[in-house]
Amino acid sequence: MLFTMHASVMIFLVIIPVLAGAFGNFLIPLQIGADDMAFPVLNMLSYWFMWPAIFCFGYSFIAGGATAGPANGWTSYPVLSDIASASPSSGEAQTWWLFGLTLVGVSSMMGSVNYMTTIINMRAPGMTLFRMPLTIWSMFITAILQAFALPVLTAAGFMLVFDRLHTLIPTSIHSVFFVPAGLVVNNAAPTVGGGQPLLWQHLFWFYSHPAVYIMLLPAMGMVSDMLACMCRKPVFGYKPMVYSMAAIAGLGFIVWGHHMFTSGMNPALGMTFMTSTMMIALPSAIKVFNWIGTIWDGNIQFNAVFLNCAAFVALFIVGGLSGIFMAAVPVDIYFHDTYFIVAHFHYVLFGATLFGVFAGVQFWFPKMFGRQMHDGVQKVHFVLTFIGMNGTFFPMHLLGIAGMPRRYADPYLHGYLEHLLPMNQFMTISAIVMGFAQFLLLGNFFFSMFYGKKVGRNPWGANGLEWSAPSPPGHGNFDVPPVCYRGPYEYSGPESEALGQDFILQTTAPPTGVKVVAAHH
Description:
Cyt_c_oxase-like_su1_sf, iron, disordered C terminus, cytochrome-c oxidase activity, Cyt_c_Oxase_su1_BS, mainly alpha, globular, membrane
């Protein structure tokens, strides 16, 4: 139950709503020069659909009593999650969990439509596609991913709910989408029909592998913006960064089968998924190369924002390299469902994504509240989190190589893997340190909201459109409708040096005057 709820809450109620939801809603209108989202009512609905989803996930943990919450993992594989009597944890609680999953999907689909429409139709005059910051590109590509992938998971969620209601309420829809014929549960009569439990894996991972990039791509774009500002340099290879994000998203749709190498897949099909998965390393390597190129020889500002961005790049490299191992079918057959998988997943979604969130919170905090967070406290938070994170998750690679399965509550029963106990204890201590370090972030955040140092519109010397708006932005975001005259990363150029600074806002007209290319309205 704890493993299931940990993954469900962190993925569906934290990372996706914070990155694609909170940062997306705040930054998209500001960075493209719009006064609001394209569909404010739809935006409101996408927000309010999250609250019943939170209720359903929370209630599912207690719906069946102390020992009967959803306990089939965040992947919720049939038949364990399909037939209500197949497992003591698959009664009413699992149905509530599925309701929560479906509501999150509906919320995200509404948000994705809004994001795409806003970015395409509401850019400020002069804001062409290749003048958009990489944050906006990443949100745009993420919205496309959500729009194409989420309907599949949402439909699968309804199908599994219908299967379950058939067993819970005899008069309801009689469906057997994932129930195989002849299945005997608790000495009952064999099931009829001919559903396929493996179909759920295909539908689930067709969404849930792109979901990894839905959680990662916004952080990639934000880190690109912040690194350029903190290194006082243009992003190295702006267009290759855009194309590589698009390539990552496109390849993300055709690799879902690498989660199913142990399912009895045809070897030829497995080879196809293996090859396409390894190809994702190419655009990912382009991004890493470009981030390092941006940092190289820059006038680096060694504050907590830069440190978190640098950690994002470093930890993404570790997570990406371990992913190459698991892309190979023969290696994955050994590593599958061991702690090596847990290590890889957390290096990508905690080590990379959350360090990008930590940097983004501090970087855009002055725009949100007109005050700055205390940088010294954030540096302490960074050091403790970085040490605790690596102490928690890096040993998991070694545990996985040793063969320790994931999701085991007591792997030491009868002496099994008892020799790995010291490493597990070290990981536990590291996790406790990492967990308590987050109170520094929370305290700094709420204290700085009221008592942080007051700052003007552009305390970082950045050049995006959002920094020409008041801090915090009022109704309509901008007091003067912005016009975009230049690209998003004009740092340390001859024109800015002539003005006695190392940046030029996108709203600054060139001295000789050039024709402004109006965006489509």
